[in-house]
Structures are given as structure tokens and as C-alpha cells.
Write a structure and sequence with these properties.
Chain lengths: ~400, ~400, ~325, ~500
């Protein structure tokens, strides 16, 4: 019995204990920094945790706290939703050996398309209109990602450069569309803002009032499942992984390598486009030019994907972590006597950075582990990407 | 043997001819000549395009695309310019444009040189942005604290090295995913500099007058028309980046240490087997990269604007990273990419007042031009073979 | 947690209300408290209200757009007496929250919610008045006859300033040439500086920045090239003696006044209060001592015409 | 033989997890001795040498060099002590030149700069002194493996190695190149250099070594003097059983299955590598393609298997024109392909064995249906093939990277020879394999020939070509310059491969 338990532990340790252990370590070190700045890490963390709304799930949370917790949990999940999708936009090309920094641009492309379709066609029935708006966003994201893919497949243009450039083109382009006197500016003459989404194109609310959690979360979860199945259970996914690991061998095996590049960047872009649609059809309902450049959803998606090791479950957890951090470190959650409001925002960013850093370095513990067992503790290999993929 | 024999023959030569003809068409339309007949650039443009196509059909792809690009862009620009009055043309194309090109290119160039060192040694550095931001803040902080810009720059370099050390420890020894670590660096830099900025300087920001990096004026050159407006008086840090550029090139490609750095980035095990200390070199290069990127940030704050603002680098580190790849991990290539980007940024600025186009639309210009250049001119780039891969000894 | 009302010990109340300590909430937009612009000034105003009116306050800084509604909602749910939203970006959010909390009073800066809501007061500024005076003075002091503006983004508060500036400049000197560029960013100081340098090379010798923190770059260009700089929103004369003046927008006054209405029991929703020259909320900051007295008199004349309504500067840039 | 040994290894033990790669190994090498190290794939030879070179630290044991104990913290220490090593997988940097690779980490300087002129002279001197001709300015990636090997040896000699380790140096060499290498080894021996020589080829061992140590599963089986032993005895020591040469029956060729006509193929630099090759391979025969590396064999194979588009000419497989239609079309037409580089092309090393085994037929039923994979079918097929081809060291879920070279090759062969393939292009199918594994591969090739397959065998090993082929083609500078029956002599082939012989006159 004991042997079996040990064997299980040995087998599962790398997958289960390491992330948990390093997350803990991350929080400990983050706490040290908080303490260094003269604050109590314990209460800071309690505030952050409660700020995420996850205390809603704890049985001992009092009922008046529960309302507030519910609000926060809704907001956490509202952010988690697009993060899961923009992370997928990174993960899928990553499996194909490419590094898509362009999630942000693809997300913006999705926003634009969702607004154009979602603010017109008021007469349509909800399912039709909603589907059209989502599809348009996915297509726009796919097109934006596909450009980078096509450039790589045809002239070998490095996707890191092209996606960075496409991000800014999308951002400034969208600002142009909705700016004062811009071609898609909404009805208010002196507000640089788009049209409103008509009610027939809004994602249904599922929990809460005012800015409730919307059905986009199911869309994102479904996308995770799609991703999982696509990568692990389909011929397409098999081919993508083969290209990612070894494009030479894939070509030898008869796999169309160039097509895989285009397809994965396009599908990734579609995920990011859907993220844009979720935000705009789920809770924003319009876009103001100022918001376009400020949004970081696509960029954070990169970290989410890598932290989640490009696996569906990992992405879900990492997105929740990031969503929780963003909401948990919001000013609502932090006591101004502990975190002066002028500094709270930056302290929150520092804590987020530390957590990414330490969770990213899972191998910190692998190190200790390997001292005892030289083999077996390696995390599953992922293809090498970024400037690596030629 | 006549002079004709020395002209490059065949498709190459024709493509080069096309480029020259296209540029001549443009030059004729610009001050001081300003030929006002649309036929001139059109004819020359067509001739250039013909050369380009001739070359393209004879398998001279790269130069052919160059020539085609020049033909189209130069002709379009020349015709557009002809429709404009004298003054609006000279508003756009003047020595200020080239000076602005250098100003925009300089922080990118520092960042890109840093990126080259890091990636040549096999460590991907997506944290350039954060390192630049760190340098921007600590450059100001050091200058204010000491009263001397030089000390400010030293402080910036130290801060950059320290941040880079974090990147180095995590990606070299702990073998974390280098992209995750870089992302974390970017977060940390925003948080730390923002926190310190507000904590130290409050709401009015950094002091209004700080000791700033001097400009070097070259009296002889200053008075030369054209060139004088560009190079006559340049910030010291711009001259430094020129020097660093040459030094980096020599170091990487002409010295033993450069050979070793490149070997570590290409094939760390091979380097290890001849006794090169892989980890030490990687540490040194990553930290050097932090130092250089921090200088780029410090150029923005101490060198150029004389103040710090939260997140004032706004993505320049990413552009620098793109320049590294664009330039195929070579200093001159990357610098060329920085210049291209700087030129396009300066051009977009200047077009605002004359073009009557939305400033937002114009703001896409540098990115669009980079994309076009990427497709047309650069093509495939091969990174150092071990870039991004942690090295495991034994 | 998190349900606790924020601030430290309430000061001894001086305002009315029989010892009741009023709770005032402030929600910033994504520019944050350190935007060197309205968020910061709103914070100044609420701090002043605390020390002078003895109110208790809580500030919620928004780091992303999705926080607007929950931030407003949180304060409203905690029965704050007044919740102030800073910036037109919160237009949509405040409409939603105000409808859900009809018993809570709201105010929003730089926005006139339409249709009007019974518990929301819009607080607008005639930035064009400040811009007008700045442009007028700038044209008077310009030797080259060319003056310029660097805007952050083409958004209403920015364009109000610029439109007024251009009108004022023309009023002072019909031959004046005005240049205008946008940096498309409120943070990229280097870009603002580059734009200003470009304008200066085109002859501008007065540069008016309308770009928040980014605009410091534009002013730095003015300093470097020995031309006049004009600050925005707050009085930026502290930057040095190259500052000609600053176009002021007293968000702090608006915030303080509105809080005072609450304390005095005179607050009304469903209306838009316009803060203008007559309220002393727009105008110029300190004027550089190098400006000749005769010019200051002309300027004063314009200012009084603005107050009287004889001059109404435009608020859109052509 | 001099009395005091130059190198003594005592009780070296190295574990990787539960695996004991070296188990108390003792080894002595005398000054000026060529000492051969023999053993199956995975016996622990490379590991032992990595220990000796400071690349890995042993868990136990002692190294004495020159009579003194030697502590190795890194290869630097080994180099300083006078140990040089040519690794099994070359430690050369592909994008750098021959000169740069040789002087790396011990560069001649001129002030702060690298003195390229002097570096050239160094390389030229060395290559003259040891008779190892290289082109100093070529990049490693554009020279052949034999050249690369010389560069590796020069690298070690430049560092004044007194003990030179050669890990499987001949695996990639032609007979001529091998005998050139032996000349070099002999001259080194005469100059007092000691050499540890690892190979799987017993005849070479007998030819060049003074003494032989055989490893099996990490343990030393025996150390014997070369005089007084023979191939059979060594093979038995290595494998633990007797190994026979494969015997093949007479061929019964049928109709041509693979027809190549006037094929012209360009290499990656756009130069003509194949200049009009024409030949047939018929059902039930093995056609051997002999030639020195770099004479267009690789390009020929790539064109037949759809990896590159031929510039001219046709390839017809089983009635289908497959020239330039891609790798899939080629495989669909029945052409299996054992690629020359199993790690670059043949396998996705990070895929599991099951995934690798189904690389070719992943779009077919029952492996997938409507684009959805059937994991059970995949695993089932993999398990069957792994059993059938006797792949050891892992199951369907094991990653290919974790297998030894021999077993990796078996996986490739299993995939390419199973199913309905009627044509097989086998490129260097036994490169780097031990005698047992070679025996297995050869038996398999003959077995499919019996079943009526057409096999094109490309190999630098004349032994192999002669042992297996029914007909032999010789390729030189992109052309088929000669054709023989299986009874041709090695020397004739050798001459023709070098451009000599009757064909040269054509
Ligand atoms: N880094 C490593 N980690 C784990 N196991 C290893 C490692 N290196 C070698 N091994 C294992 O040690 C054993 C000995 O390998 P080694 O490379 O020494 O064999 P070899 O005799 O050189 O084989 P070959 O003839 O194929 O070259 C093998 O079973 C191999 O799987
Ligand atoms: N990290 C590792 N984990 C497990 N085994 C490893 C590892 N690295 C190397 N090996 C094993 O070490 C052995 C020797 O590796 P090497 O690269 O020398 O291959 P090889 O067996 O000699 O192959 P070849 O026959 O192609 O030369 C292989 O059997 C391989 O399985
Ligand atoms: Mg070996
Ligand atoms: Mg081997």
C-alpha cells in the first residue's frame, strides 16, 4: 500500500506538487516584498484573496460579505473569460512552433467586428444575431492572425515581428474607426465611442446584476475543450504538434507544414477574436477609443498560456489566477490604510510580476527534486519557439 | 576593358538600375529641383518597375522586390509631393525629419543591441521593455539624486544589470521559460518604477530641471546645409550609440570573445566541450543586455525629455526586439530596422499637419512600413540555434 | 473583508448636518490618480473637502475599464452619500449604476449623461475658455506669428482646449498661424517632445500642451528651444520660467463644490453644472512675469468678456 | 609497450536514475596505444568517455592520468590535461567556418581582435602535418561528414591532445575515408599519442587496435589483446550470443516497381546535384546505390520520396507519377523511406512511439475517422509493431527521445516497412547501429524482398551494399556511372566511387 502511494507520488509529483509548491513559494516571496514595503503580508493576501471573490465559495463567509464576494467573483470570471481565449491564441500556434505575440491585435480585430455586426441588424432574433456577431469576431481575429501566418508560410517573415506590428496597426486602426468623426463613430457627436450593441446581440447574463457574469464564460470553457480535443484528438492537432516539434520530420511524414502555420495562427486569432466579442457583447456593449490602447488582455494572454504550459487545464487555472489577481488587487479590495490608493495599483502589478516569475520557474523545485532523482522530473516537453522557430 | 564592364551584370544589375531610376524620379520631385510635371516621375517609375519585373523574372527575387517597392513608393510619393505647395513639401522632408529619425531610433537601437547580445548567447529577452523602463526611471533618479547626468546613467546601467540578473538567474540556472520570465520582468518594471516614482516624487513628478545629457555640436558640420541640420548638434547618447554599434559588431564578429558568445548561442554543448564557460557567458550577456536596454530607457528620460512618466517606454522594447529579428541578429541590420522605424515615425509626425489624414491612421505608418519591408526585403531569418533553450550541463 | 469604509479618522466636521459625517466616494478612470490631470485634481478636491468639510472619503482607482461598474456599484451599495465618477469614459457605467441605486447621489466629471438621470449631476467644464485665453496670450507673446498645440488624443476635453486656443489666437492676431498635432498617447513623453520640436522647427514659438503627463515632453521641447510653453489643467508654472501660463481646469473646485452641496443639502440630480469662467473654474494660472502689463490688460479684457458671455469660443477643432 | 599506463580508470560508476550506465569500469590505456572500446548500443561507451572528458561526473571511481589522480570539473580540465575527444555526435557549430570551429576557445589574437590570418595558418599547418585536408573557410553546414570528422580531430590536435578519444568515428565514413583515418591514427600513434577508439565494426577493431575492451550493460566483459582474438569471439563478448552474417537467396526480380528517368535535382544552393539519373528497381530485388557522401545520393533520395521537386525527369512508382508531388503522394504510391538522419527527419523525438509509428497513416482508418484520432487504434497498432520489430526500451507511450539509436531506427523501419508499401528507399539504414541491430535490420530488408518489395539501398558501407544487393549502381558527381551484379569486388567499386575506373571515360 505504502509502495503504491509512493509510486503514485513519484509519478504525479512533477505534475501536481510542483505547480502548487511553486505557487506557494511565489506568494511567500511576494509577501516578503510586501513586508519590505512596510505592509503586513498576511492581511494583504487576505485582502487580495477576498478581493478575488473566491471567498464566496468558502462556507464560513458571512452572508453580508457574500454579496460583495459574489460581485468580485463575477468580475474575476469576467476577466478570466477573455484571458482563457487570448491564451489559446498563444497556445495553439505555440504547439506549432510559433510565438504569437499578436493576441492583442487579434482581440481588437474581434472587438471591431463584433461591434459592427452587433450594433446593426436590430431586427434579428437573438440566436441568429448573436451567432453572427460571434462568427464575425472570430473571422476578423482569424484574418488578423492569418496575415501573420501567411507571411510566414510564403516569405518566411518571422511571426514575432509581424504580430507585434499587426498589434499596433489594429490598435491605431480601431482608434481611427471610432474616433471623433471616425467612420464608425457612434451616435454621440462629441464622444469618441462606437455604436451600442443591440440587445439581440448581447450575451445572456448568467449571474449577478449591473455588470453580471455573462455566458461568454461557457464559450471560453467550450473553446478550451475544443482546443484540447483539437490538439490531442484530431489529425489536425497531431500534425500541428508534429510540425511544432520537428518541422523536418513533419514534412517528411507528408504533413503540409506551411498550411499548419497559417491554420494555427488563424485559429489562434479566431480565439482572440472571440475574446474581443465576449468583452464587447458580454459587458462593455460599446468601445471608447481610449480603452483600445489601454487594454492588456491579449498581452496577459501570453503569460497565461505559458504559465498554463499550453495545456487546456493549465490555461484555465492560470487565467483564473490572473483574473483573480487583477480583480483581487483592485482598489475595491484593498484597505486604503494598508495600500495608499496612489500606490495600490503599482503594488498590485509588482505582486503579479513576482507571481509570474516564481510560478514560471517551476524548475526551482525540480532542481531540488533532481538532486535526489535524476530522471523523471522533467516537465512535458513543449516545442521551442520564439526567435527559435525559423 | 571599358567602364561598362564593371557595372554588375545581369538581373542584379538591372534591379539596381531600377532602384536608382526610381530614386531619381523621387529626387527630381523634391526640393530643391521640384520638377512639376507628373509625367516625369510616372515615366521614371514605369521604367523602374520594368527593370524590377525583368529582374524578378530572372530569379533575382530580393533586389527585384526592392526595386519594385522603390518604384511604387517613390513614384506615388513624388506625384503626391508635386500636388503640394513648396512649403508643405519642405515641411515634411527636411533635415528635422532625419534628426527625428535618429531620436526615435536611438532608444530602439540601445534596446536592440542589448537584445542581440542576449539572444546571441542563447537567451530570449522579451523583457527588454521592462529593462528599458527600469533604466528610464533609475536614470532620472540617479541624476536627481547626484545632480549629474553621468552618475544617473551609471545608476540606470546598474539597475538594468540588476533586473537582467533576475532574468539570468531564472532563465539560466532555474531554467524557467524565458518568455515567462521576460513577461514577469515587464510586469515588475512597470510596478516597481511606478511605485517608486509616486512614492519619491509625488504628483508633480520628477523635478522640472535636471542635469541632462549634453548635445555635441560639431561646428564645422553644423553649417553645412542638409547634413548640418541632422548631425550638426546631436545628443551625446546618439553619438554613443553609433560607437556602440560599431563596437558591438567588432566584438561579436571580430574578437575571440564574440566567437565564444556566438558559439554559446549556437551550440552550448559544443562550446562546453572546448572549455567555454557557458553559464558565465550567458550571465554576462544577459546582464550586458540589461545595461544597454537601460541606457536606451535612460536616453528617453535623462537624454531626451528630461523627466520620467509612468510606463513612458510604451512598447519600445518590443519594437527593439522586432528590430533584432528583423536585422537577423546582427547589429547593423538591427540598426537599419531601428532607422526604418524611426524614419517612419518621424514621417508620420510630419504628415499630420499636411496630409489631412486622421492622426490615428498615420500612427500605423511605421508598423505598416515595417511589415512591408519584412515581406519584401527580409524574409527568412535564422535565429541562433540554441536561442531560448536552457542549457543543461552533463 | 473589503466591506469596510475606507478612510482614516474623520476630521471634526465643520459643515452642517448635525454631526453626521458624510461619506464621499471617488472613482477614477484608467488614467489613475497620477495622471497629472483631472483624476489628480479630483483627488486634491476631495482631500480639501475632507479637511474643510470634515467628510470621510474613499477613492477607488480603476485599472481597467471593467472596474468602472463594480467600483461605482461597491460605493453605492455601501450607501455613500455621493459617488463621483471622474471622466467621460464612465458615462456608460454611471448610467447603469445610477439606475440600480436610485437613492444614491452621483456626479460625473466631463460628462452630461443623456438622457438625464434624476440622481446624477453632470459636471462640465468650458475648457475652451481656458484655451481661448491661453491662445490669446500666446498669440500676443509670439514673435514668429506661429503658435502650436500638442494634443494627447482627439477626445472632447482635449479638443475643447485646442479649439479655444485657436480661436483665442486668432482674436489676438488674425494673421497668426496655428499648428496642431496629436501624440495618440497620454504617456509617450518622447513622442510629445518630438511633435513639439517639429512644430518649433516650423516656426512655432509658443507650445501649448494638452496631453497630460505626455505633454511634459512638449514643454521640455519648449524649454530646450527657448520658446514659450503653456501648461494644462493644473498650474504648471513650477516647471520653470519658460512657462508662459497654464490653461486651468479646476476639477478640484468642481469636486469640492459638489461635495459641499451634499453637505449643505443642496445637491440636485438630473442637471448639468457647467464650470466656467464665471465660477472661477476656468481661466489661466500664473502668468509669466515677462509678459508686459499692456498685454495683461488686454487679456483681462478678454477674460471679462468671456465671463459676461460676450465671447463664446468654439469647442470643436475643425 | 611502455610500462606506466597513460590513463587509468578505476571503478568508474555512473547512474542515470535506476539505470547503471557504467558499473565499476576499469580501463588502462598505455602511451602510444590504440585501445578499442566495443559494446552494443547503450552499453555505456559514450557515457564512460563523457566521464573521462569531464562532461559528466561519475558517481564513484577514480581517474589517473600520467600517474597522477585527475579531477575533472569541466571539459576545460580534461583539455588542459591533454585529453581530446571527438564526439559521436559532432560538437561543431554549423554556421561557423572550419577555422572558427578549430580555434574556438583558444584563438590566436592580434591585440583585442581575433587574428584570422594566423588562425588560417594554424589550420593549414595542422592539416599538413597530420595529412588531414580541410577547407578552412567553408562553413561546417556545407561540408560533408568526413570533412567534419577531420575538423573534429584537428580541433583536438590543435589543443595538443596526448590522449584522443574517437567515439564511433567511422560510422559515417566510406572505406577510403576510413583507411585514410587509419593512416592518421597510425601516424598519431607513432608520435606517441594514445587513442581510444569506439566502433561497432569488428574488422576495423582488428585492423587498428592494440588492445580491446568490451563493455556490456555498463560492465567490462574483458580486455584482450588484438592478436589472438577474432570477430566471432568479440561479437559473442558484446552480445552474449553468437551472431551470424545474414545469408540471402537468389533474387527473383519481377516487373519494375520504381522507375527513375533522366532525373535532375538541385541542392539547397541551387546547384545541380543529380544530373540525369535513370534506373529501375524491380519487385523482389535490392538495388544498392554506392557512392561517396555528397555525390547526389541524398538529393536523389529526396526527389524520389517527394521531399524536393526535381528540376527535370520523372519518377514513377508502381504506375504513379510521383515526381514533385510531395512526400504524401510518394508514400501513398507505396514508397517507404528510411531517411538518412533519423533524428532530424525520421522521428519526432518528442512524440511517443505510438505517435511516431503512425506518422504516415494518421489520416487513414482506423487510426482516424473524419479527422478524429482513435487513441485505441493508435496504441494497438503501435504495440503490434513494437512487438513485431522487437523494439526495446519503451512502450507505445514512451517518447522516442528516450530510446537508444538502434531502437529508434527500428521504430522508423517498422513504420516504413509495414502496411502496403511495395517500394522501400533505405538510406543508411544501419548507421551507428551495433552488430545485433544491424543483423536485425538486414534480416528485415531481406524478408521484405522475399515478399516481392523493390528496395533501393543507399549506403556508404560497401560491406552492406555487397552483402544485401542484387544489383549495384555507383553514383559519382550526380550521375550513375556504373552498374554491377552482386559479384563485383570492393576494390572496383571503391575505384568507381572515386571517379576512377571504366566509367570515368564515359
Ligand atoms: N543523460 C542521460 N540521461 C539518462 N540516461 C542516459 C543518459 N546518457 C546515457 N544514458 C543511458 O545510459 C546508457 C549508456 O548510454 P551510452 O550513450 O553510454 O551508450 P553507448 O555505449 O555509447 O551506445 P551507442 O553504441 O549507441 O553509442 C544508455 O542506456 C542510455 O540510455
Ligand atoms: N536526457 C536523456 N534521457 C534519457 N536518455 C537519454 C537522454 N539523453 C541521452 N539519452 C540516451 O543516451 C543514449 C546515448 O545517446 P546518443 O545521443 O549517443 O545516442 P545513441 O544511442 O548513441 O544513438 P546513435 O546510435 O544514433 O548514435 C541514447 O540511448 C539515449 O537514449
Ligand atoms: Mg555512444
Ligand atoms: Mg550510437
Amino acid at each position: 500500500m505504502r509502495d503504491r502511494a509512493t509510486a503514485w507520488l513519484t509519478a504525479k509529483s512533477p505534475a501536481v506538487l510542483l505547480p502548487v509548491g511553486t505557487t506557494l513559494l511565489a506568494f511567500v516571496i511576494g509577501g516578503l516584498v510586501v513586508a519590505l514595503t512596510g505592509h503586513n503580508p498576511g492581511s494583504a493576501y487576505r485582502a487580495i484573496f477576498n478581493g478575488t471573490g473566491l471567498n464566496y465559495l468558502l462556507p464560513w463567509t458571512s452572508s453580508e460579505d457574500k454579496d460583495f464576494a459574489a460581485l468580485n467573483l463575477q468580475q474575476t470570471l469576467i476577466i478570466t473569460t477573455p484571458l482563457m481565449l487570448t491564451a489559446l491564441a498563444v497556445a495553439l500556434p505555440y504547439r506549432c512552433g510559433m510565438f504569437n505575440i499578436g493576441g492583442q491585435g487579434q482581440y481588437v480585430a474581434g472587438i471591431v467586428a463584433a461591434i459592427v455586426v452587433g450594433s446593426h441588424g436590430a431586427g434579428l432574433s437573438k440566436p441568429v444575431h448573436l451567432t453572427l456577431a460571434l462568427a464575425a469576431a472570430a473571422l476578423a481575429g482569424a484574418a488578423w492572425g492569418g496575415i501573420a501566418g501567411a507571411m510566414k508560410a510564403t516569405v518566411g517573415a518571422h511571426e514575432v515581428i509581424s504580430t507585434i506590428m499587426l498589434n499596433w496597426i489594429a490598435i491605431y486602426g480601431a482608434q481611427y474607426l471610432f474616433e471623433l468623426n471616425g467612420p464608425l463613430q457612434g451616435p454621440l457627436p462629441d464622444v469618441p465611442q462606437s455604436d451600442e450593441i443591440t440587445s439581440s446581440a448581447k450575451l445572456p447574463a448568467v449571474w449577478g446584476v449591473l455588470q453580471p457574469l455573462h455566458a461568454g464564460i461557457f464559450l471560453a470553457l467550450a473553446a478550451l475543450v475544443v482546443y484540447y480535443v483539437l490538439i490531442n484528438r484530431t489529425v489536425f492537432g497531431y500534425e500541428v504538434r508534429a510540425v511544432g516539434y520537428n518541422a523536418d520530420a513533419a514534412g517528411y511524414g507528408g504533413i503540409p507544414v506551411a498550411r499548419s502555420y497559417v491554420a494555427t495562427l488563424a485559429i489562434g486569432g479566431a480565439f482572440a477574436g472571440l475574446a474581443g466579442a465576449c468583452d464587447v457583447l458580454g459587458w462593455e456593449f460599446h468601445i471608447v477609443t481610449n480603452d483600445i490602447a489601454v487594454s492588456q488582455i491579449g498581452f496577459i494572454g501570453i503569460a497565461v498560456a505559458l504559465l498554463g504550459r499550453n495545456s487546456a487545464i493549465g490555461i484555465a487555472l492560470a487565467a483564473l489566477l490572473f483574473g483573480g489577481l487583477q480583480v483581487g488587487t483592485s482598489a475595491r479590495a484593498l484597505d486604503p490604510t494598508v495600500f495608499p490608493p496612489q500606490l495600490a495599483g503599482n503594488l498590485a502589478v509588482i505582486i503579479q510580476g513576482l507571481i509570474i516569475l516564481f510560478i514560471g520557474a517551476q524548475l526551482l523545485l525540480v532542481y531540488a527534486w533532481r538532486a535526489r532523482r535524476r530522471r523523471g522530473a522533467e516537465p512535458p516537453p513543449v516545442p521551442r519557439v520564439d526567435p527559435t522557430a525559423a | 576593358m571599358t567602364a561598362l564592364d564593371r557595372i554588375p551584370r545581369g538581373a542584379r544589375g538591372v534591379a539596381i538600375l531600377g532602384i536608382v531610376v526610381g530614386l531619381v524620379g523621387l529626387e527630381l520631385a523634391l526640393p530643391p529641383l521640384q520638377v512639376q510635371a507628373a509625367a516625369v516621375p510616372v515615366v521614371l517609375g514605369l521604367a523602374a518597375a520594368a527593370c524590377a519585373i525583368w529582374a524578378l523574372t530572372r530569379e533575382e527575387r530580393k533586389l527585384g522586390i526592392w526595386a519594385l517597392l522603390v518604384a511604387v513608393v517613390a513614384t506615388a510619393f513624388a506625384i503626391w509631393v508635386q500636388g503640394k505647395s513648396d512649403t508643405s513639401t519642405s515641411l515634411v522632408v527636411n533635415s528635422g525629419l532625419f534628426a527625428a529619425t535618429l531620436v526615435y531610433a536611438t532608444p530602439l537601437a540601445y534596446g536592440a543591441l542589448g537584445g542581440i547580445f542576449c539572444e546571441r548567447a542563447g537567451v530570449v529577452n522579451i523583457g527588454l521593455e521592462g529593462m528599458m523602463l527600469t533604466g528610464a526611471f533609475f536614470g532620472i533618479w540617479g541624476t536627481v539624486w547626484s545632480g549629474h547626468w553621468a552618475i544617473g546613467l551609471v545608476v540606470a546601467m546598474l539597475a538594468g544589470a540588476l533586473v537582467a540578473l533576475v532574468h539570468a538567474v531564472f532563465s539560466i540556472h532555474l531554467r524557467a521559460d524565458q518568455i515567462v520570465t521576460g513577461t514577469a520582468i515587464n510586469f515588475l518594471a512597470v510596478g516597481v518604477t511606478g511605485y517608486a516614482f509616486i512614492d519619491i516624487y509625488g504628483s508633480n513628478g520628477t523635478p522640472p530641471s535636471i542635469d541632462s545629457v549634453p548635445s555635441i555640436t560639431l561646428p564645422g558640420i553644423e553649417s553645412i546645409p542638409g547634413i548640418g541640420g541632422v548631425f550638426g548638434s546631436l545628443n551625446l547618447m546618439i553619438w554613443v550609440v553609433f560607437v556602440l554599434l560599431v563596437v558591438t559588431h567588432l566584438l561579436l564578429f571580430r574578437t575571440p570573445i564574440g566567437l565564444r558568445i556566438r558559439s554559446v548561442g549556437e551550440h552550448p554543448r559544443a562550446a562546453d566541450t572546448v572549455g567555454i564557460p557557458v553559464y558565465r557567458i550567458r550571465y554576462a550577456c544577459v546582464m550586458l543586455s540589461g545595461v544597454l536596454a537601460a541606457l536606451g530607457g535612460a536616453y528617453l528620460s535623462v537624454g531626451f525629455v528630461g523627466s520620467f512618466g509612468q510606463n513612458m517606454t510604451v512598447g519600445r522594447g518590443f519594437i527593439a526586439l522586432a528590430a533584432v529579428i528583423f536585422g537577423k541578429w546582427r547589429p547593423y541590420g538591427a540598426f537599419g530596422a531601428c532607422l526604418l522605424f524611426g524614419f517612419a515615425s518621424g514621417l508620420a509626425d510630419r504628415l499630420q499637419s499636411v496630409a489631412g489624414v486622421s492622426p490615428n491612421l498615420l500612427a500605423t505608418l511605421p508598423y505598416v512600413l515595417t511589415l512591408i519591408a519584412l515581406v519584401g526585403l527580409v524574409g527568412r531569418s535564422r535565429p541562433p540555434a540554441a536561442d531560448g533553450q536552457p542549457y543543461v550541463k552533463g | 473583508g473589503g466591506g469596510d469604509s475606507g478612510s482614516s479618522t474623520p476630521a471634526a466636521g465643520s459643515g452642517g448636518g448635525g454631526g453626521k459625517v458624510f461619506k464621499i466616494g471617488l472613482v477614477t478612470d484608467i488614467g489613475g490618480l497620477d495622471d497629472k490631470s483631472f483624476n489628480h485634481l479630483a483627488f486634491v478636491g476631495i482631500q480639501r473637502a475632507k479637511s474643510q468639510l470634515g467628510i470621510d472619503f474613499k477613492v477607488l482607482e480603476s485599472h481597467q475599464e471593467s472596474e468602472y461598474v463594480p467600483n461605482l456599484q461597491t460605493l453605492a451599495a455601501q450607501h455613500y452619500d455621493l459617488v463621483i465618477a471622474v471622466g467621460f469614459l464612465m458615462d456608460g457605467a454611471i448610467k447603469q449604476v445610477a439606475k440600480a441605486f436610485p437613492d444614491v447621489n452621483f456626479a460625473i466629471i466631463d460628462d452630461a449623461p443623456s438622457p438625464a438621470l434624476p440622481n446624477v449631476q453632470g459636471l462640465l467644464f468650458k475648457e475652451q475658455e481656458s484655451g481661448y485665453l491661453a491662445g490669446y496670450l500666446g498669440a500676443l507673446e509670439s514673435k514668429s506669428g506661429t503658435i502650436s498645440t500638442v494634443g494627447g488624443q482627439k477626445i472632447p476635453p482635449v479638443d475643447h482646449y485646442i479649439a479655444g486656443f485657436q480661436a483665442g489666437a486668432e482674436a489676438a492676431n488674425p494673421q497668426v498661424k496655428t499648428l496642431n498635432d496629436y501624440s495618440n498617447s497620454f504617456t509617450d513623453t518622447a513622442k510629445c517632445k518630438q511633435l513639439a520640436l517639429n512644430q518649433i522647427s516650423q516656426g512655432s514659438d509658443v507650445v501649448f500642451q494638452v496631453a497630460g503627463g505626455c505633454g511634459l515632453g512638449a514643454l521640455s521641447a519648449a524649454k530646450e528651444k527657448n520658446v514659450w510653453g503653456i501648461g494644462v489643467d493644473a498650474d504648471q508654472a513650477y516647471l520653470g520660467d519658460y512657462i508662459l501660463t497654464s490653461a486651468i481646469k479646476k476639477v478640484d473646485v468642481a469636486v469640492f463644490d459638489t461635495i459641499k452641496q451634499i453637505v449643505d443639502g443642496t445637491f440636485k440630480g438630473g442637471i448639468v453644472t457647467t464650470f466656467d469662467a464665471t465660477k472661477g473654474a476656468t481661466g489661466l494660472g500664473a502668468i509669466n512675469s515677462a509678459v508686459p502689463q499692456s498685454d495683461i490688460q488686454k487679456l483681462d479684457d478678454q477674460a471679462s468678456q468671456l465671463k459676461s458671455g460676450a465671447i463664446t469660443p468654439p469647442d470643436t477643432v475643425s | 609497450m611502455p610500462d606506466a599506463p597513460l590513463l587509468e580508470l578505476r571503478g568508474i560508476t555512473k547512474r542515470f536514475g535506476d539505470l547503471v550506465a557504467n558499473d565499476g569500469v576499469d580501463l588502462e590505456v598505455a602511451q602510444g596505444e590504440v585501445h578499442a572500446l566495443l559494446g552494443e548500443n547503450g552499453a555505456g561507451k559514450s557515457t564512460l568517455m563523457n566521464v573521462l572528458y569531464g562532461l559528466t561526473s561519475p558517481d564513484a571511481g577514480e581517474i589517473r592520468f600520467d600517474g597522477k589522480p585527475l579531477r575533472l570539473r569541466s571539459p576545460r580540465d580534461a583539455i588542459d590535461a591533454g585529453i581530446g575527444m571527438v564526439h559521436q555526435h559532432f560538437m561543431l557549430i554549423p554556421v561557423m567556418t572550419v577555422t572558427e570551429n578549430i580555434v574556438l576557445a583558444a584563438e590566436p589574437r592580434e591585440g583585442p581582435l581575433l587574428d584570422y590570418g594566423k588562425a588560417h595558418d594554424i589550420v593549414r599547418d595542422l592539416s599538413d602535418r597530420y595529412g588531414l585536408a580541410v577547407r578552412p573557410d567553408e562553413r561546417i553546414e556545407s561540408i560533408g561528414v568526413a570533412q567534419q570528422q577531420r575538423v573534429e580531430i584537428l580541433k583536438a590536435l590543435y589543443r595538443s591532445a596526448r590522449l584522443l578519444v574517437l567515439d564511433e568515428p567511422t560510422a559515417v565514413l566510406t572505406p577510403q575515408e576510413t583507411s585514410e583515418l587509419f593512416t592518421v591514427i597510425r601516424s598519431l600513434r607513432e608520435q606517441g599519442t594514445s587513442i581510444i577508439f569506439i566502433t561497432h565494426k569488428l574488422n576495423e577493431v582488428l585492423e587498428i587496435a592494440d588492445r580491446i575492451t568490451v563493455l556490456r550493460r555498463g560492465k567490462v566483459m574483458a580486455t584482450v589483446a588484438t592478436t589472438g582474438t577474432d570477430e566471432r569471439r568479440l561479437a559473442e563478448l558484446m552480445v552474449g550470443r553468437s551472431v551470424q552474417r545474414v545469408e540471402k537467396g537468389a533474387a527473383q526480380p519481377g516487373e519494375p516497381l520504381l522507375s527513375v528517368r533522366d532525373l535532375v535535382v538541385h541542392d539547397s544552393r541551387g546547384l545541380e546535384a543529380v544530373r540525369g539519373a535513370s534506373f529501375d528497381v524491380r519487385a523482389g530485388e535490392i538495388v544498392g546505390l554506392a557512392g561517396v557522401d555528397g555525390n547526389g545520393q541524398s538529393e536523389l533520395v529526396e526527389a524520389i520520396t517527394g521531399l524536393v521537386k526535381p528540376a527535370a525527369g520523372t519518377v514513377v512508382a508502381d504506375g504513379h507519377d510521383i515526381g514533385g508531388h510531395g512526400a504524401r503522394a510518394s508514400f501513398e504510391a507505396g514508397v517507404g523511406h528510411i531517411p538518412e538522419d533519423r533524428q532530424r527527419r525520421g522521428l519526432v523525438l518528442d512524440f511517443t512511439l505510438a505517435e511516431n509509428l503512425n506518422l504516415r497513416n494518421v489520416r487513414r482508418r482506423p487510426i482516424s475517422r473524419f479527422g478524429i484520432l482513435d487513441p485505441r487504434a493508435i496504441a494497438e497498432r503501435a504495440r503490434r509493431l513494437l512487438g513485431e520489430y522487437d523494439v526495446r526500451g519503451g512502450g507505445p507511450g514512451t517518447r522516442a527521445r528516450a530510446l537508444s539509436g538502434g531502437n529508434q531506427q527500428k521504430v522508423v523501419i517498422a513504420r516504413e516497412m509495414s502496411g502496403t508499401q511495395r517500394i522501400l528507399v533505405a538510406s543508411q539504414p544501419t548507421r551507428g547501429l551495433d552488430v545485433g541491430a544491424i543483423e536485425f535490420v538486414h534480416k528485415r530488408l531481406l524478408a521484405v524482398r522475399e515478399l516481392g518489395a523493390a528496395i533501393l539501398l543507399v549506403s556508404f558501407e560497401l560491406d552492406e551494399i555487397l552483402a544485401l544487393s542484387d544489383r549495384i549502381l555507383v553514383m559519382y558527381e550526380g550521375r550513375i556511372v556504373a552498374e554491377h551484379g552482386s559479384d563485383v569486388s570492393e576494390s572496383v567499386l571503391g575505384l568507381e566511387m572515386m571517379g576512377g575506373g571504366s566509367a570515368a571515360a564515359v
